Amino acid sequence: MDNSYKIATIINYCTTDYKFIGHCINEAKIFSDQVIVPVCDHFYDGTPEERELLEKTYRENSSDAQFCEYKYDRNLFDNLKFCAPDVYSRMVGFKETRDDIDFIIFIDVDEIIEGVRFKEFLAEFDFTDYNAINFSSYYYFREARFRAKKLENSALMVRKKVLSSGMLKRVIAHGQDRMGIISVVPEKRIKNIPGLDGNPMVHHYSWVRTKKEMIKKVQTFGHKSALDWASLIEKEFSHDFNGTDFLNGYEYEVVDPYITIGNGHHVNTHEITRSFIIPVLDYSPHSPYNIETLLKDLENIPGEVICIFNSIEVFDKLHNHPRIDKYCFNNLNAGVSRSWNIGINMAEGRSAFILNADIHIIPSAVEQLESYLYRLDKAVIVGPQGTHLDFKNLSIIKYFQKGTFNEPVQTHDVSGFLFAIHLERYLKHHLMFDVQFSPCFYEEWDMGLQIMQAGLACYAVPVNGFEHHWGASQDENLSINYFGRKITRKEIMSGNRERFVAKWLQSASKEKIVY
User: Fold this and answer.
1) Phi, psi for 303 (deg, rounded to 5)
2) How far apart are CA 350 and CA 371, in angstroms?
3) Above 90 in pLDDT, residue 218?
4) What is the mean pLDDT of residues 416-421?
5) How confident is the model at residue 148 (pLDDT cuts 50, 70, 90)?
6) C-alpha distances in angstroms, 9 versus 18, 93, 397, 460?
7) 230 φ, ψ to 5°?
8) Which of 41, 39, 37, 62 is nearest to 50 (CA)?
9) How many angstroms separate the CA atoms of 282 and 318, rounded?
10) Stretch among 115-129, 231-245, 341-355, 468-482 having the lowest mean pLDDT
């Protein structure tokens, strides 16, 4: 359907769920016209919020979401039953929705909606037939890889004009939450709705926590007096996970995590779902950003960091940096293709991100690139910029630059300063960056043709959460020290052009390529 409807997503949040907030907002903003995060200045047990962490949350996410902090009313909250504080928070968010909003989605911050799939769902499913839709969700326990075999319901979508503050107050009075909201909304209502492919689009991580985090949760949430939580948690963590939870008795299976939960970057092997590969030659004198600013960016983005050092000066200063998990030191500059290949060979993630050292990136860009990588048909490489090429004339037909397109576009290549690789497909089809196009230039075009020849695809995708200033590669007077010998930009370009023509335009391989 042609979706011209405006959607607001309201996310309940407190700092015990800090590790989820970036993921939740980044996914929600893909399909939302307004993202609202109501926050109480106290936990639901009446203790003050962690102010420093709350302010950190605001600093990191206020550009992508509207935070609405409200005061804890002890006279009111001490008398609320069960889940009523959650609905009170949702009501605070409801009052902040814009006048042009048509539908509201109510979620908790530990419920991560797959943004790309949900946007596709909204484009195809006629949701305007309903006043309320409750979405099925996956449920997880202890770790993001332990997923229950039984599905639940969580995210709730409601037509705004059929809801009022008075209705929400009635739900609060009965101590209910979203099931109470859906019950007061007039028909038509539906539940248990999956994505277009029949699988849930929501991942519920409420109990994906360490022992310490679980204890903090049960001390402060709305169900704090329902059970002897401390004893249950102590018993649970007295042994390895045994395949069932103490809450519902669900049976679990082990899956690849949709997202990596947590802010620490040093992780156990089974938790490495993402690898960042960064070739490093110098401190990027042509740019306001460099390897140190990039490592700072990556502090709050989960994934292993692999640096390929191509000079002794930077290696000596940075190889012990706490954000670097693995490194390789080349005593001479090995060039772009070799550095990428080395990093890919060291990567243990499901996806590998190639980043220039002179790039600035925020978490949403990483999350969005990864979402597109796993959702687009036959995608093996996606990046925020790419081109349509005239290979026969060795020229660019159209360049898809940041901010100039709104939907994914299948391209002939992606720009090498930032892209993500689907490693399973990449390795299965024996792809590798051709080192004859070293130290730089033509390696992206060559990989694009390799991908097409393998029956796969690369895409430019509309991701904006990064900054990159073209520098050395655009310098007409560039001179590179490559394996101990100096080569000019002109020499590199002409030599690699000849190699590209010889490989693709003067051999039988060209017959296999659709230009």
Assistant:
1) 140, 150
2) 12
3) no
4) 97
5) very high
6) 18, 9, 39, 27
7) -60, -45
8) 41
9) 11
10) 468-482
Show Cβ contacts of residue 32 under 8 Å, excluding neighbours closer than 6 positions.
Answer: 7, 8, 9, 105
CA–CA dist 118, 382 (Å, integer):
20
Residue 123 DSSP SS3: helix
Q: Distance between CA 252 and CA 243 in Å, rounded?
A: 5
- Alpha carbon of residue 190 to chain centroid: 29
Q: Is the pTM of this model over 0.70?
A: no
pLDDT of residue 472: 55
Three-state DSSP state, 219: helix
Residue bearing tokens 């909003």: 101
Burial 97-112 (b: 16+ CB within 10 A, else e): beeebbbbbbbbbbbb
Span 89-103, pLDDT tens digits: 999 999 999 999 999
Measured distance CA(18)–CA(221) in Å, rounded: 14
Q: Does pLDDT of 509 surpass 70?
A: no
CB atoms within 10 A of CB 306: 25
Residues sharing a CB contact under 8 Å with residue 427, sequence separation 6 or more, in sequence order: none
Cα separation, 275 vs 298, whole angstroms? 11
DSSP state string for 274-307: EEEEEEESS--TTSS--HHHHHHHGGGS-SEEEE
CB environment 48-60: b (16+ within 10 A), e (fewer): ebbeeebeebeeb
Q: Which residues of 251-281 are buried (b: 16+ CB within 10 A; e: fewer)?
A: ebeeeebbbbbbeebebeeebbbbbbbbbbb
Per residue in 238-274, pLDDT tens? 988 999 999 999 999 988 878 766 433 333 434 588 9
Q: Tell me the three-class secondary structure of 427-444, residue by residue.
A: HHCCCCCCHHHCCCCCHH
User: Would the CA dihedral through 336, 337, 338, 339 be positive or negative?
Assistant: positive
Which is more confident, 74 or 6? 6
Nearest Cα to Cα of residue 24 among 36, 42, 33: 36
d(CA 145, CA 167): 38
Nearest alpha carbon to residue 434 among 424, 420, 448: 448
pLDDT of residue 129: 93
> Number of helices (H) and strands (E), helices first, in the chain?
16, 26
The span from the CA of 234 to the CA of 214, in Å, is: 10
In the predicted structure, residue 465 carries a pLDDT above the cut 50:
yes
Six token digits for residue 346: 């060291």
Other Cβ atoms closer than 10 A to 85: 22
Q: Tell me the pairing of strands 34-40 and 66-70.
A: parallel
**N-to-C CA span, the chain:** 33
Taking the CA atoms of residue 417, residue 418, residue 421 and residue 427 in that order, the dihedral angle to the nearest 10 degrees is: 20
Instruction: Indicate the range of 77-91, 176-190, 302-316 predicted with least confidence.
Output: 77-91
3-state SS, residue 51: helix
Q: Please give the average per-residue pLDDT across 131-145, as a whole number.
A: 94
